[in-house]
């Protein structure tokens, strides 16, 4: 087991370096870098998105003192060759130093920590509600496969899956956020302006009240995947020979279902928990965050790309990729813990 874990950790290194290297190379050819962004701000010509072209002829540099350009290049480290900047970046990442934001003048670690509470709130509630609803629903559908209940619920979850979360969010705002009909729920943020003055119970209720619309828009599309996965896993187990043998021995249907089928059918769901749990924090919908004015990690990454804030782009990419790789390793370990028939040697092959 230890040898397998060591091999997997060593294999993470080239994967991580490859992702970072590819992104770094692509960044070198993207027009409108941080130097040009600063030039545009200094000249008061608006957002850099209105400019065109790239390289030395980029319009943001025209009419600017060359000494000033060199000063800004030195400030951002662009006075060094790309290869030197690349190895300096790898050295920092090896020390878990994600760098400093060009425009927000804060470390990337601080920015991630400041945005994390919003992403954790959305991610945790999305994860728990999805599994708390979808797993029992999938079991019920498997037991009643082919019935009217199975057909109707399949239609409902598939319709929910087909509706984009952003579109559903807009609809919820129009109907219940004061858009056209009623204003039952707040429009933005996770707390009210007077949150600090509220009692403990008032803070809890205010927080939950703000979550209703964004969480609804986030989870509806997630029900279909987990529900159908649960249903198909249970149907596959129900049709196996050991279930027929257990029934032939006179065991009750409830005992067969919960003692034999349930444990085996939940293996793919349980082993997927780590990836789903961690992924819920870092894969929040950018559109949902924007629509409900939630300042989370998705919005941070999007704004960093627009402003060419490369330390934030590369730092968050490095962090999320590292978390994703370790989550995949944890998922493999869960397979062995849940099902003793699986061995690490088999997983490695």
From TrEMBL:
The chain crosses the membrane at residues 9-30, 116-139, 151-176, 207-230, 265-292, 312-338. PANTHER family: INNER MEMBRANE ABC TRANSPORTER (PTHR30465), INNER MEMBRANE ABC TRANSPORTER PERMEASE PROTEIN YEJB (PTHR30465:SF66). It comes from Cupriavidus lacunae. The keyword Membrane applies. The keyword Metal-binding does not apply. It is found in: Cell membrane. Coiled coil: none annotated. Belongs to the binding-protein-dependent transport system permease family. InterPro entries: MetI-like (IPR000515), MetI-like_sf (IPR035906). It comes from the Bacteria. The lineage of its organism: Bacteria, Pseudomonadati, Pseudomonadota, Betaproteobacteria, Burkholderiales. PROSITE patterns: ABC_TM1. It is a multi-pass membrane protein. Gene3D superfamilies: MetI-like. This is Microcin ABC transporter permease. Pfam families: BPD_transp_1.
């Amino acid at each position: 087991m230890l040898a397998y874990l060591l091999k997997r950790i060593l294999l993470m290194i080239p994967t991580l370096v490859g992702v970072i290297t590819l992104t770094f190379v692509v960044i070198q050819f993207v027009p409108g870098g941080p130097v040009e962004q600063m030039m545009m701000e200094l000249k008061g010509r608006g957002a850099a998105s209105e400019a065109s072209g790239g390289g030395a002829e980029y319009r943001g540099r025209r009419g600017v003192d060359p000494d000033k350009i060199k000063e800004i290049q030195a400030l951002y480290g662009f006075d060094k060759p790309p290869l030197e900047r690349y190895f300096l970046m790898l050295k920092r990442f090896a020390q878990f130093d994600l760098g400093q934001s060009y425009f927000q003048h804060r470390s990337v670690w601080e920015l991630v920590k400041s945005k994390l509470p919003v992403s954790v709130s959305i991610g945790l509630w999305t994860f728990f509600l999805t599994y708390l609803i979808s797993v029992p629903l999938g079991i019920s559908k498997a037991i009643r496969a082919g019935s009217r209940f199975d057909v109707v619920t399949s239609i409902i979850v598939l319709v929910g899956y087909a509706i984009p979360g952003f579109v559903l969010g807009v609809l919820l705002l129009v109907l219940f956020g004061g858009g056209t009909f009623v204003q039952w729920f707040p429009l933005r943020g996770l707390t009210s302006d007077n949150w600090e003055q509220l009692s403990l119970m008032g803070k809890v209720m205010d927080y939950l009240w703000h979550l209703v619309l964004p969480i609804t828009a986030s989870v509806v599309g997630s029900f279909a995947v987990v529900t159908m996965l649960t249903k198909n896993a249970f149907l596959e187990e129900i049709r196996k020979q050991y279930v027929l043998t257990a029934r032939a021995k006179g065991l009750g249907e409830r005992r067969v279902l919960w003692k034999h089928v349930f444990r085996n059918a939940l293996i793919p769901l349980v082993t997927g928990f780590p990836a789903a749990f961690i992924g819920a924090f870092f894969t929040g919908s950018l559109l949902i965050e924007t629509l409900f004015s939630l300042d989370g990690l998705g919005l941070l990454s999007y704004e960093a790309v627009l402003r060419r804030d490369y330390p934030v782009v590369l730092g968050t990419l490095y962090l999320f990729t590292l978390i994703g790789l370790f989550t995949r390793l944890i998922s493999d370990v869960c397979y062995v813990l849940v099902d003793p028939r699986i061995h690490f040697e088999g997983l490695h092959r």
